[in-house]
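Researcher: Can you fold this with IPE in place?
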Amino acid sequence: MSLNPFHPVPRHVAVIMDGNGRWAAARGLPRAAGHREGAKAVRRIIEAAIDQGVSYLTLFAFSSENWQRPAEEVTDLTFLLKHYLRSELNELHEQGVCLKVIGERERFGPNLAAELETAEARTAGNSRLTLVMALSYGGRADIVGAARRAMEAGVRPEELTEQVFAGFLSTTGIPDPDLLIRTSGEERISNFLLWQLAYSELFFTPVLWPDFSAEHLAAALSEYATRERRFGARPV
Ligand code: IPE
Ligand code: IPE
Ligand code: MG
């Protein structure tokens, strides 16, 4: 394995935070307890990302497909999200975190959608870490939405380049993830950032999300530093 001399630390890390349910089941606890413990891991990872020099952190917290779960679990997750936002916003702001939300936030109802908007506005001037929360997010919906917005904006077919198209995605202005981490041993994308992950390095770990620590992040970053990114070209 050769060292990547140019960007030893990934600028943008994206995480599929998976395994809350299995963490709870292993302890004979309800799934909600796993989600609560998962929220604590979110706190840890944000702090660790800042400490370890990451500039953009994208967290997949709720997928467009997660609405298919039993109503009770959806309610628990929505409640937890609301609670997390209310209890953490001050701290995030003080840490210099700029919050951005991608996904169909309206599906959580007008109140929570408005709260998310306020949180984004309040932290918009921060630059230590950009925290992108993917909520009711689906990669295909993001691409279809971008196509719609491009058409609505009157972009002509011959004007539509990859760069122009990317400008209509929910992640406009955010560099593509350098590293994708998925916890819990599942090795799939589950409709996360389909367009944006085109050349991301993938890192899968059996660690369940509630157990994910600063040391686990450091291990993923060390592994990343050994990867040789070629982007289809030939190494020099
Ligand atoms: C990830 O944990 C959290 C969400 C998808 C909201 P899961 O709830 O998917 O946990 P497992 O995969 O069932 O263990
Ligand atoms: C992906 O996990 C979504 C989030 C972590 C938010 P899931 O648990 O929903 O994915 P599948 O169903 O195992 O693919
Ligand atoms: Mg899961």
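Model: Folded with IPE in place. The domain at 12-138+179-226 is CATH 3.40.1180.10 (Undecaprenyl pyrophosphate synthetase).
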